[in-house]
Structure formats: C-alpha cells, structure tokens
Design goal:
Order of helices and strands: HHEEHHHHHHHEHEHEHEEH
Helix content: 40-55%
Radius of gyration: 23 Å
Strand order of the largest sheet: 4-3-5-6-7
CATH architecture of the largest domain: 3-Layer(aba) Sandwich
Number of helices: 13
Oligomer: single chain
CATH class of the largest domain: Alpha Beta
CATH superfamily of the largest domain: Cobalamin-binding domain
Number of strands: 7
Structural class: alpha/beta
Largest sheet: 5 strands, parallel
C-alpha cells in the first residue's frame, strides 16, 4: 500500500526544508494545504509531498519562494523538468529513485536505471548513484520517515540489478587455489548484503576466484576452507552485527579459529568497524571506510 499521509517532520526529512520554514511558506504563501486531524494536527497527502519536492528544487536553484508561490503546479513541474535536464544524471536519478520508493513504483525505478545505463557503467551507477541513495535512505529510516516496507522495496530492486549484472557479465573465474581466493560472507544475524553482493560482482568482473556465502554465516563454518586454500581474503560487512562491545572479540575468535597460522586476511566494512581497536594486535585485519576504497585495492 502506498504511503499517503505524511507528517510535517516527514516533509522536513524528505525535502531538507525545516518544518518551521514549511509552516511559514504555508501561512504566508498558501504553498501547501494540509489536512488536519480532529486534534488539529497537520498532515499532508502525496500531492503535497510531490509539490514540496518540486518547490525545493526551484528554491535551491535560485527561485524566490514569493515567485514560486505565484506559479501554477504545471509551470512548477515544467521548470523542475528543465532543471533536471541540467542536473547531473546522478542527482536527477536519486530524486526519481526516492519517488519510486515512496510510491512503490517499480516501473519508475527500472526506467530511471535504464536511462542511467545508457550513459554509465554498472560500477559507476552503483558507486555514484546507488551508494549515495542508500546512505540517504539510511538516515531517513533512522528518522522514521520511511517504513521498513519502503526500505525493503528499494533495496530489493537494487539487489536485483546487481544480480542481473552478475549474470549478464559472468566470466569464468581464474583458478587461483595457490594465488589466493576471496570468501565473502556476513556474520551471524547480519542480513544487509547489498554491499557484499556488489563486491561479488566486482571481483567476478576482475576474474578473481570468489566464493559467496551470503548472510548470517557462523565463524565455525569458515574453517572449512582451510583444507582447500592456502591464502584466503575473507571479506565481510559489519553493518549492525557484531554489537559494538563484541567487535574486538569477534575478530579475536576469527583469528584463533580460522586463521591461527596467519595465512589469511580479513577485510572489514560497515559502520560497526568503528568499534574495532586492536589494529596492532591483528595486522592481517584491514578496515575499508568505503566500497570505492576496497574496489581500488582489488
């Protein structure tokens, strides 16, 4: 079901315009016409949101709000289209993807993606459009502007594009049993796998021997690879797991059980890595701040 009712806080977070400013625009220019509950609390429909997003585009491109308020909705829309044609494709696409998410509009998502694909490689699209979009959606989710259904919808579509590109560009992996192999996995109770799936795509495109294990993989099962490969680079994401106070303990357990002889490396990404402090103790562990940083290393 499409979300059709928004609070003024929702509008603030989705548009970047402060709630106080939105109220001034309402009162002074009659820019939006909110409905009210029985207890006199403002709420806004989808048309209000779409208009505010369009107004915000014009406002950020130098149009005075007093002038915007005098324009018809049709004229505002046309001016936004003109601006979109002048914007970088990535900026325009992020706005379209956000609207696709709000409306659960898969067609808008796919059409926007196909337009990008005419101009950019998939790696460029993912790193320069999808990653900023996901970062922004993460903030919106934390602010409770988007619901889990919205997040799952848009991340599901993004993951589908990665998988489609993996299938389309699949190449025979190099036999690197002696030169090393990448093993990709997520720790127990970690399900955020979009970044890991992209890394899989990237490594395959570079013809590296890569094994993808996916979500929620216990450390005890990683020991299985020691009898097959001499040199392994284990790659994982710490997005919500392990918990902050258990990050160092997790790495210690990994080293003791999977890498006791120091033959392998452990590459870590994700926000929980900020809690890893045992750098000097484990020189085989490397933190990457961004996906781009990791792809440059490979």
């Amino acid at each position: 079901m499409v979300k059709s009712v928004f609070s003024i806080k929702d509008l603030e977070n989705l548009s970047g315009i402060k709630a106080h400013t939105i109220r001034i625009w309402e009162k002074r220019y009659n820019l939006l016409v909110p409905e009210r509950t029985d207890t006199n609390i403002r709420h806004y429909n989808l048309s209000n949101l779409q208009k505010l997003l369009n107004v915000t585009q014009l406002y950020h491109h130098g149009y005075k709000i007093s002038k915007i308020a005098k324009l018809s909705n049709e004229k505002i829309h046309q001016l936004v289209v003109d601006i979109a044609n002048e914007q970088s494709p990535q900026e325009s696409a992020i706005a379209s993807f956000k609207m696709a998410m709000v409306n659960f509009d898969a067609n808008l998502f796919h059409n926007t993606y196909l337009d990008l694909a005419k101009k950019f490689s998939f790696s460029e699209i993912f790193l320069e459009t999808f990653v900023p979009l996901l970062n922004e959606l993460g903030l919106l989710w934390q602010a409770e502007v988007v619901r889990p259904s919205h997040e799952h919808f848009i991340t599901g579509l993004i993951k589908q594009t990665i998988i489609a590109n993996i299938k389309q560009n699949h190449v025979e992996q190099a036999d690197s049993a002696h030169n090393g192999v990448y093993v990709l996995y997520l720790p127990n109770n970690e399900i955020h796998d979009i970044g890991l799936t992209y890394i899989y795509y990237h490594l395959l495109s570079k013809k590296h021997k890569t094994i993808y294990l996916g979500q929620s993989m216990g450390i005890e099962f990683l020991k299985d690879f020691n009898s097959f490969y001499e040199n392994i680079i284990f790659v994982t994401y710490f997005t919500v797991q392990p918990e902050p106070e258990k990050v160092n303990e997790y790495v210690q357990t990994f080293q003791n059980e999977v890498n006791p002889e120091g033959r392998h490396k452990l590459w870590l990404l994700g926000r929980q890595t900020q809690y890893f402090t045992d750098y000097e103790k484990y020189p085989d562990v490397r933190i990457f701040d961004t996906l781009y940083q990791l792809t440059q290393k490979v």
